[in-house]
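RECORD TYPE: inverse folding
INPUT: structure tokens
STRUCTURE:
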């Protein structure tokens, strides 16, 4: 999510770091910082906002250093602020460290270090790393980092420098990408090769549990993992060096043609990040101190969800699952409507705002209105430190990473995962048994792999898109948990391809939309094997009887449906409340390919904005 660049060589380090950070900024960052080694010690400069702000702050600095690291942050733990920005520095100001990823046991490590007298200045999970490295430092930085990482659970791509071992940058990876750039008498480290392409095209991608020591002359590596660090450094990485063929534009999009396509493919990872560290095998969900302590949640009687667009669709899925498993009455409102009617907020009402950006004006206004009327306010946001996140009393961050494509994709699936976690959490307090909760958690753990399975069969959806790209209208129908998916499928298509599309509850079709059905009207049925399956087969017959063309999203192994429809796309079997995460993926891809084939600007559709900050 964040960006890292580091350098060791003969050149002045600052321009290299700043230029690298600018190349990483496309991912939407909120603060940045650099640290480099001077004869007098480590200089560390940070700023909130764009890299340009950091660059301006550095104007007066005389830097002759040739060893340094830098970071652009996209906040996960703690608001965007100078203290929370990286690099983090140890108590003697001799070690600096930058990190991408999430340290899951940071709470435990923090209390352990605090007991040993360490003082923390940030709210980040990262800060524990720099104190741990300092704790183990005896003159050799790679040894200290290797020892520190033995205690760490979670994901990291990191780089560290030390004034007392000044000619190296030590780096390590577990779950967050990191590459070493090879130059003549110089080496680079980066989370994203776009940052170093102006200097070298030769890179070695680090593997998980690999630690590497970069000096001017060489790169050495070693293995590290929880409870084990092989002290022995090798020089055998060079055989893995690769020549980068892509240009910067392609690298920013990781080789995908559009951000939207990249973000659709990131979903196995973004979903994992939403779940990470929040659940255990016994069905217990941890959502943070607010959820554990807040009295209002104990006397909770009703949840009112406010949101717009795709987030509103996620809210509808949330309504179904919260009512079914947590047995709490839920209403979902368009934020823009909530505000201007006179909503009833009784004691025990919690208002939950859902927003990817955390800045949508209507959702923010609804949240403020709810607060004014005395409701306890919660939020589900992706952007840490966003206005809605700050205005609400408690919340769940998605950790889905920056979403750049205007049409929301990975945020939607992460919102459903977050609402599912909230359902299990509240359900456990409201009669959901331990066994059922642990089955629900088990089912959620399987989801990222199931999403991956769907993404591997993208070609089939591309072929379907080719067949239907010239349609003028498309109808999306679903029942139960798949009704909001029908709405979302239709929204995706109209947003980016400008084809008119409607989502409807399948049974409502006969009260109007059925009049539209002709042989030129494709109808997408989300017809997975669930409690409404029998009924939806009936609705399919009604469309076929009128000559409509039917595309079905069905459950793996359902041979029967093949005989009734024109095309089937299979998705893996999942429990009902999780089905939307799977059934929406083919609809995202179908919309994407139809739009691309029609020559539309997928990432920036006409008239739309990523963050709508006007009411
Ligand atoms: C805009 C975007 C949509 C998004 C909606 C709500 O209309 O184009 O993709 O769903 O705003 O945004 P939020 O950031 O509040 O989820």
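DESIGNED SEQUENCE:
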């Amino acid at each position: 999510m964040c960006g890292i660049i580091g350098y060791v060589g003969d050149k002045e380090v600052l321009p290299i770091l700043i230029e690298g950070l600018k190349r990483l900024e496309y991912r939407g960052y909120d603060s940045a910082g650099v640290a480099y080694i001077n004869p007098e010690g480590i200089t560390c400069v940070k700023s909130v906002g764009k890299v340009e702000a950091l660059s301006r702050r550095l104007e007066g600095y005389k830097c002759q250093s040739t060893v340094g690291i830098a970071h652009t942050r996209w906040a996960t733990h703690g608001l965007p602020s100078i203290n929370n920005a990286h690099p983090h520095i140890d108590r003697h100001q001799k070690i600096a460290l930058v990190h991408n990823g999430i340290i899951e046991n940071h709470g435990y490590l923090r209390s352990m270090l605090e007991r040993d007298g360490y003082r923390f200045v940030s709210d980040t999970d990262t800060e524990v790393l720099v104190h741990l490295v300092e704790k183990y430092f005896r003159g050799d930085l790679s040894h200290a980092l290797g020892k520190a990482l033995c205690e760490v659970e979670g994901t990291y791509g990191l780089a560290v420098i030390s004034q007392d071992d000044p000619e190296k940058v030590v780096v390590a990876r577990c779950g967050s990408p990191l590459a070493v750039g090879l130059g003549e008498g110089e080496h680079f480290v980066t989370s994203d090769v776009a940052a170093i392409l102006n200097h070298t095209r030769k890179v070695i991608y680090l593997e998980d549990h690999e630690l590497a020591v970069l000096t001017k002359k060489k790169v050495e590596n070693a293995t590290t993992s929880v409870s084990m660090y092989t002290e022995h450094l090798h020089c055998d990485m060079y055989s893995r060096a690769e020549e980068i063929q892509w240009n910067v534009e392609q690298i920013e999009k990781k080789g995908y043609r559009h951000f939207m396509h990249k973000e659709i493919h990131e979903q196995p990872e973004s979903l994992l990040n939403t779940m990470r560290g929040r659940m255990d095998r016994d069905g217990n969900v941890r959502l943070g101190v607010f959820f554990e302590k807040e009295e209002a949640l104990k006397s909770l009687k009703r949840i009112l969800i406010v949101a717009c667009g795709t987030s509103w669709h996620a809210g509808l899925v949330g309504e179904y699952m919260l009512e079914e498993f947590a047995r709490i009455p839920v209403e979902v409102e368009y934020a823009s409507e909530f505000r201007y009617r006179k909503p009833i907020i009784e004691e025990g009402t919690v208002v939950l705002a859902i927003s990817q950006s955390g800045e949508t004006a209507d959702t923010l206004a609804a949240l403020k209105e709810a607060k004014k009327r005395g409701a306890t306010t919660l939020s589900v946001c992706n952007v840490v430190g966003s206005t809605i996140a700050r205005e609400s009393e408690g919340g769940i961050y998605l950790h889905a990473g920056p979403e750049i494509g205007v049409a929301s994709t990975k945020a939607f699936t992460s919102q459903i995962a977050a609402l599912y976690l909230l359902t299990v959490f509240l359900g456990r307090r409201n009669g959901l048994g331990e066994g059922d909760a642990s089955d629900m958690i088990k089912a959620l753990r399987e989801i990222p792999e199931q999403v991956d399975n769907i993404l591997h069969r993208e070609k089939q959806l591309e072929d379907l898109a080719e067949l239907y790209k010239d349609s003028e209208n498309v109808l999306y129908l679903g029942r139960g948990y798949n009704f909001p998916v029908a709405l979302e499928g239709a929204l995706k298509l109209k947003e980016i391809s400008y084809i008119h599309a409607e989502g409807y509850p399948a049974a409502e079709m006969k009260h109007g939309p059925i009049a539209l059905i002709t042989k030129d009207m494709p109808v997408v049925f989300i017809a997975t094997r669930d409690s409404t399956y029998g009924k939806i087969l009936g609705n399919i017959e009604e469309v076929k009887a009128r000559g409509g063309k039917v595309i079905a999203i069905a459950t793996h192994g359902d041979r029967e449906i093949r005989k009734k429809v024109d095309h089937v796309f299979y998705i893996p079997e999942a429990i009902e409340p999780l089905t939307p995460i799977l059934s929406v993926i083919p609809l995202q891809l179908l919309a994407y390919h139809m739009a691309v084939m029609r020559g539309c600007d997928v990432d920036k559709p006409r008239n739309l904005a990523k963050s709508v900050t006007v009411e």
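NOTES: The first helix runs from residue 13 to 24.
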